């Protein structure tokens, strides 16, 4: 495993963080010429990185009614005017989520959440106590729409046993519910394609439609990964490694896209 | 042209208890705070509120104990935190809550605005919202099939609020409205209402609207009343006019953590001031408003 240790040395030397690996992996999920619905934070950073590298013709939509923004200031959320500076279109839900997403022309949808389970179902609605008492959180907003309708859904969450449980406490946004096909569920979109965390990339290209390992980030051990995942995960031997960001990707992330480390903690 | 300009107090007096009010804000943007404050001062009760993405206006009204039901897609105060008064009310069962998605609200309002009784949507299928609402709210949504193709859909009931309230940057006295920046579900939400009230930052002559009528999102003939209130959305933002007031939102985000502190907030900032001008003095006056005023190029 000489190549891995060389990679690890390089990673240590350039101080590459888990967030940088995560966001670069997300950027690699979009192709040039595609249309993506993005949320604020890491998905937006990933799409801007993709645009400045391999996907200059990527279109980005924000659910509130924004296309192809080029913000110069960091926003605190989707409702912050900073996010929609220098856009090419201002419209509303009916345009972005309706006549694009519902119409079926959105290639990739990025969502985050409180939890994502082994079928790629996402919870953004509530948490439950040990005694079952519910504590409400933000809810769906456009999350359910994106999960139901985008051709490929990419979920971005931090890795942890409670973030990746066997089953979500509340099913806000459907993946492959109980391993059923999207067609069987009555849903149009292609469903979850990747779950990208700060430890690994998971995918669903298997007959059981459950999350399986696509690649592990360099520096993460199999033991760490299994200890932090709430469902069984098959790990091929040797486990494929997530590519590290290139020198140019790192430069863009650190100097141009998020110099203040608002998202790339 | 009719002059529909009225005071917020006069408008709110005309809204009966038990009304369904559709609110036009989104998280911390273009919330009709001046309207919400007056509803709280006049203690309108047993309200139903609907909104795509809830923000501070809805949190204030729920926190004041005036709301019995919400029909919503989601909501938060962005990075300032969750809508804690609403979440507490959902946790304790104090309000009926119909939780769906942003697009579901936009579709529901669209059906209402078009005068059709339902609309099919591909969202919500196989979700827990669907599962819970099918039994708890069969008057709001049902499962159905396309009569032509047999494809599965959710049929959403058209939403026709008693009153729709939209906060805009520019309107004339007849109610012709311009909205700068993204409009989320405002156009459908406004036109779905049986009555439509607009709150405007700036009141302009109709001749100004006539110069660029393609910018009119809500035409005046649909509007019942125009409330003119500069900084009427404070501490939320109005694109092109002013930024959100981060300092006041942080203060609110601390206060709404407990019912006791929320009550104190309402005493200090809603019941204390007699009107919005007094409220604006209380939160920093002209000096603060000038600090959050939008920069000409950026619009924030």
Explained architecture:
The complex is a heterodimer of chains A (265) and B (300). Helix content of chain A is 27%, strand content 17%. Chain A has eight helices and 13 strands. In chain A, the strands form three sheets. A nine-stranded mixed sheet of chain A has the order 4-3-2-1-5-10-11-12-13, sandwiched between helices. Chain A has a two-stranded antiparallel sheet with strand order 6-7. In chain A, α3 (42-52) packs across α8 (247-257). The longest helix of chain A is centred in the N-terminal third of the chain and has 13 residues, at 2-14. The radius of gyration of chain A is 18 Å and the shape is globular. Chain A starts with a helix and ends in an 8-residue tail after the last helix. The relative contact order of chain A is 0.16. The mean pLDDT of chain A is 93. Chain B has 300 residues and is α/β, with parallel strands linked by helices. Chain B has two domains: 8-101 and 160-206 and 218-292, Glutaconate Coenzyme A-transferase (3-Layer(aba) Sandwich), CATH 3.40.1080.10; 118-157, no CATH class. Chain B has twelve helices and twelve strands. Chain B has helices at residues 8-13, 33-41, 56-63, 84-92, 102-114, 128-136, 186-192, 206-211, 246-255, 259-271, 276-282, 285-292, and strands at 20-23, 47-54, 67-75, 96-99, 118-121, 141-145, 152-157, 163-171, 177-178, 195-203, 216-218, 225-228. In chain B, strands 1, 2, 3, 4, 8, 9, 10, 11 and 12 form a nine-stranded mixed sheet that branches. In chain B, a hairpin with a 5-residue loop joins β8 and β9 (177-178). The radius of gyration of chain B is 19 Å and the shape is globular. The chains are: A alpha/beta (265), B alpha/beta (300). At the A-B interface, α4, β9 and α5 of A face β3, α4, α5, α6 and α7 of B.
What would you call the quaternary organization? Answer: heterodimer
The overall average pLDDT of chain A, rounded, is 93
Structural class designation of chain B: alpha/beta
Which fold name corresponds to the CATH topology of the largest domain in chain B? Answer: Glutaconate Coenzyme A-transferase
Q: Categorize the overall geometry of chain A.
A: globular
- Strand tally of chain A: 13
The most extensive contact between chains is: A-B, 51 and 62 residues
The largest β sheet of chain A comes out as: 9 strands, mixed
Going by CATH, the homologous superfamily of the largest domain in chain B would be: Glutaconate Coenzyme A-transferase
* Helix/strand structural class of chain A: alpha/beta
* Count of the domains of chain A: 1
Low-confidence stretches of chain A: none
* Series of H and E elements of chain B: HEHEHEHEHEHEEEEHEHEEHHHH
């Amino acid at each position: 495993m000489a190549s891995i240790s060389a990679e690890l040395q390089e990673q240590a030397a350039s101080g590459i963080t888990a967030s940088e690996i995560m966001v670069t992996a997300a950027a690699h999920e979009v192709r040039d010429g595609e249309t993506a619905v993005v949320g604020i934070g890491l998905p937006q950073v990933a799409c801007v990185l993709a645009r400045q590298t391999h996907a200059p013709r990527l279109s980005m939509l924000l659910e509130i009614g924004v296309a192809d923004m080029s913000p110069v200031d960091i926003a605190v959320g989707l409702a912050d005017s900073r996010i929609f500076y220098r856009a090419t279109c201002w419209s509303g839900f009916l345009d972005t989520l309706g006549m694009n997403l519902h119409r079926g022309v959105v290639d990739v949808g990025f969502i985050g959440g409180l939890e994502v389970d082994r079928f790629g179902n996402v919870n953004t609605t509530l948490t439950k106590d040990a005694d079952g008492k519910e504590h409400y959180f933000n809810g769906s907003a456009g999350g359910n729409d994106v999960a139901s309708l985008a051709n490929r859904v990419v979920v971005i969450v931090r890795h942890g046993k409670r973030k990746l449980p066997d089953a979500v406490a509340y099913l806000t946004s459907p993946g492959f519910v109980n391993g059923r096909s999207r067609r069987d569920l009555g849903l149009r979109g292609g469903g979850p394609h990747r779950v990208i965390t700060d430890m690994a990339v998971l995918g669903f290209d298997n007959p059981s439609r459950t999350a399986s390992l696509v690649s592990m980030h360099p520096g993460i051990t199999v033991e760490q990964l299994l200890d932090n995942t709430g469902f069984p995960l098959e790990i091929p031997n040797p486990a494929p490694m997530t590519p590290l960001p290139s020198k140019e990707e790192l430069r863009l992330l650190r100097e141009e896209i998020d110099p203040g480390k608002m998202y790339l903690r | 042209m009719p002059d529909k300009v009225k005071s917020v107090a006069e408008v709110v007096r005309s809204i009966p208890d038990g009304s369904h009010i559709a609110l036009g804000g989104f998280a911390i943007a273009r919330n009709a705070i001046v309207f919400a404050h007056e509803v709280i001062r006049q203690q309108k009760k047993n309200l139903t509120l609907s909104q795509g993405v809830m923000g501070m206006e809805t949190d204030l009204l729920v926190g004041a104990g005036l709301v019995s039901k919400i029909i919503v897609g989601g909501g938060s105060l962005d990075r300032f935190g969750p809508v804690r008064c609403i979440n507490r009310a959902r946790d304790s069962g104090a309000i009926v809550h119909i939780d769906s998605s942003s697009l579901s609200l936009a579709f529901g309002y669209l059906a209402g605005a078009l005068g059709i009784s339902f609309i099919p949507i591909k969202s919500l299928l196989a979700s827990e919202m669907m599962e819970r609402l099918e039994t708890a709210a069969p008057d709001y949504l049902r499962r159905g099939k396309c009569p032509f193709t047999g494809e599965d859909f959710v049929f959403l009931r058209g939403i026709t609020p008693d009153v729709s309230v939209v906060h805009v940057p520019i309107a004339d006295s007849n109610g012709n409205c311009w909205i700068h920046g993204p409009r989320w579900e405002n156009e459908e939400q406004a036109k779905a209402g049986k009555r439509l009230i607009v709150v405007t930052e700036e009141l302009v002559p109709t001749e100004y609207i006539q110069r660029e009528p393609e910018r009119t999102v809500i035409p005046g003939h649909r509007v019942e009343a125009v409330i003119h209130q500069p900084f009427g959305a404070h501490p939320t933002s109005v694109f092109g006019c002013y930024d959100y007031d981060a300092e006041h939102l942080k203060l609110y985000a601390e206060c709404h953590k407990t019912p006791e502190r929320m009550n104190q907030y309402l005493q200090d900032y809603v019941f204390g001031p007699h009107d919005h001008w007094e409220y604006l003095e209380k939160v920093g006056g002209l000096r603060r408003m000038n600090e959050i005023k939008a920069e000409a190029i950026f619009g924030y």
